[in-house]
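Q: Can someone sanity-check these two? First one:
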Amino acid sequence: MEEEGDSNSYSNNYLAKEQEQDQKQKKKKEKPKSGSKFWPLKAFLITIILSVLFNVISSAIMTDAGITIIIIVIVILIIIGVIFDMIGMAVASCEEKPFYSMAAKKVKGAKVSLKLIKNSDIVGSICSDIIGDICNIISGAASATLVLIVALRSNDFMTNLISVAITAVLAAITVGMKAVSKKVAVSKSVEIVSGVGKILSIFSRTK
């Protein structure tokens, strides 16, 4: 009877400690972060900088380029957009628990991965809303350039046919890759976030 009483008291104390920790975490989450107040302005500036950068690079590559080069640029932009959408989704759907054990074992990038998950709203905004949308917009503009080049080199019938085919294929590739990437992001969220954390740990003081 004494042993049962000791075990019950131990379990009750353990549950009480867990509840206290949960309440502390909830209070921390309720407190607004100072950095989040200025995030819309930061997002605005980041979008302008990245948009200019992507536009300059893509324009420099596609200037006087052939159809093959333009198609390659479009595919690369689509892939970049899909990859960052997948990262944003993985961070948003990933739980912190696996990375606490990794951090305790001093696994490389675990602490960086925890920071990504704790700032999932900002990470998702950067990956999906900023980089993903910029890549979609520029790839759309590049597709319009490709259609224009084809129009100048073909007759009316071929122009309409090729233009419809190009836009349909590119749209199908983009939508299909995004659909697949979202499933992968949710099912392999831990692996993806861990991989991103390891890469970012190379450039971060937090290992």
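And here is the second, same format, sequence then tokens:
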Amino acid sequence: MSVEQNTDLIPLAVLGVTEDPNTDTRIVILRNDATADVLPIWMGQTEGAAIRHALEDLVPPRPTSHDLMASLAAHLEITVTRVVVTDVRHNTYFAAIHLSNGVERTVDARPSDAIALALRTGCPIYVTRDVLNKSGGDNVETWLSRIAPDVGGRPNGDTDTTPRRRTGTMNRTERA
């Protein structure tokens, strides 16, 4: 069954990364454009910065771990086909990175790493319906509007929620 036919996988776009004012952690905001379902995932400052840098197309002077993973995959002719947020247990999310070089393989990952890699390789991001149901709530949108009016670095009042994505993969020569 293809990803598109799997009704248990819901496509998500990264709206942005915001700061949790209560815990000094970062929250990546994922959203399904068709249903407006929102999935917030808390992570550390470094992990949030890696996602934000990918969203803003920032190219560091030296490759980050996620840039290295994307470059290795490209040079070894391995395609990152998708990432999936697969589970949530005790407020901890789990993810899988799906790879293919003619043979499909799945690697367990933290959602922050999977999302950062997805943004660098341009692959789609999904969540299982079960995870979205467990993490959703009727007032997620209201809650988000209070703590994240500037999701993705947009100033207050900017209503453009178009997700920004890096295109393609980067390699060392593109950094010069």
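A (reply): Looked at the second one. The two ends are 42 Å apart (CA to CA). Confidence is low (pLDDT under 50) at residues 1-5, 152-176.
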